[in-house]
Amino acid sequence: MLDVAQSQDLVTRTAMEGVIKLFLIVELDRTGQQLLYISKAIKDGIAASSKSSGRKQGQVDKLSLELKANIYKYLHDR
Predict the structure, then answer these.
(1) Mean pLDDT (the chain, rounded)
(2) Is the Cβ–Cβ distance between 39 and 47 less than 8 Å?
(3) Sorting pLDDT into bands at 50, 70 and 90, what band is 67?
């Protein structure tokens, strides 16, 4: 579209550039609104769920004995 606008006169070129900018703005706005809608739907779904997210309190799956000892030492040295 810009190639066509380059070969046209000043008024046509300005109008076509304005239309292209408007298309970009509309698309960016639509994408932003869709992102907000999706994130709100996810938050609402999490809030409506009876399940709690994450691990159970005090449960850690991948904790090595060495790391566990270091954490224990850190917490009890203070």
Answers:
(1) 84
(2) no
(3) confident
DSSP state of 64: -
HSE toward the beta carbon, residue 4, CA cutoff 13 A: 7
How many angstroms separate the CA atoms of 32 and 26, rounded?
10
- For the chain, the structural domain boundaries read 1-49
As a whole number of angstroms, the distance between CA 39 and CA 27 comes to: 18
Question: Which residues have C-beta within 8 Å of that of residue 8, sequence separation ≥ 6?
Answer: 16
Give the Cβ contact number of residue 20 at 10 Å: 13
Q: Structure pTM?
A: 0.49
